[in-house]
Design goal:
single chain, alpha/beta, Rossmann fold, Dihydrodipicolinate Reductase, domain 2, 2 domains, seven-stranded parallel sheet, seven-stranded mixed sheet, globular, NAD(P)-bd_dom_sf, Saccharopine_DH-like_oxidrdct, transmembrane helix, Sacchrp_dh_NADP-bd
Amino acid sequence: MGERLDIIVFGATGVTGKYTLPYVYKFAKSAKGPMTWGIAGRSKQKLKDVLNETAKRIGVNDLNHIPIIIADVEDEDSIRRMTAQAKVVINCCGPYQLYGEVVVKACVENGTHHVDVSGESQFIEGMQLKYHKEAEEKGVYIVSACGFDSVPSDLGTLFVEKHFEGTMNSVEVYLHCSQEGGFTPGPKTNYGTWASAVNAVGNYWSLFSLRKKLYPKSLPAIQPKLSLKYPIHKMGNKWALPFPATDFDVVKRSQRYFYENDEKRPIQVQCYVLMDSFITAMSCIFLGFFFLLLTQFKFGRYLLLTYPEFFSLGFFSRKDIPEDVLQRLHFSFTLHGKGWKEIITENKCKIPINKTVVGRVSAVNPGYGFTCLALTLCAIMILKEPKQLPVRGGVYTPAVAFSKTSFVEELQRNGVTFEIISNKED
């Protein structure tokens, strides 16, 4: 076997894979390159088609020289052969709870790094429980949640803390999405994200037993405690609901790592999503309960997976989303960091909170612009800045893996805004 390719994009014919390829091409030719790359999936013809589509999208004659590897999650030997040909696998084949472990396992066995965009806590933490020790021993980096879930919250928390100049006790994260020209009917996100959400929520209760094994020792009680505001509260002129995404779990895992390895006081986190009207917020609460109820039963999950457009009111779809719709979608994560202007080391502090720093992470096209950019840059960081990664390999969050790299700076150079919008002391 010849020299390994720097990057293989697995699941390249799916929506996330398709939108990732232009970024891989761009960075392979950039100042941080040159790099070699290939694509992998089940169908040779579909892989050829996606290369032709990518060539048209980026304005080159052809990409026929890019290696094509046939690999199928139903054929474990093919996955082993595929991972053995790469330094880093960008895994775009989800839902990861169903299809991800075979790729992670093969990557660890073959000494291949792995990044993905999973927002499924069961998969992410399950991989940490099963493979962290072996990955650590082999110097392999496995990093999930490398896209919209959960880079803005995870790296955004560290960004706000960096500018805090004191001790940050907690951060409240508020997500707001909008569409230029106002929201219009039609799909905004692909079916794969919907399927991942259905599987993750349907298996949510399994997290409790998993975490007992993964974290036999609890984090210390932090005071003052940051409580979740539910079911709804006002934030400016918008209404905030608890945001049941992976962000909370990912940020908490990062903070646990920094506490256990750097003896750093953990930052507490709560996550919310902003709605423009009270009626919209109440509708989301109703639909959320209905979704949760259906996911608890096999037939309910079948209905959700079979009729995504109906049950998501058209937001999720199996159909391709028009490019102009994607480019008109905007998002912002506003992070309200609270704490003290003094340096506090004890976990329980009775000094009143006296400082607030508010930061914001924003960009366009969250699902297939920002996500695919961030995912590609995560692979680039592993390849190009290995000395800035944790000393040992392992299964890590984006913040743990890339906090000392130029990851945030590269995001900023490519259209993502990280900014401090308020810094106040009482």
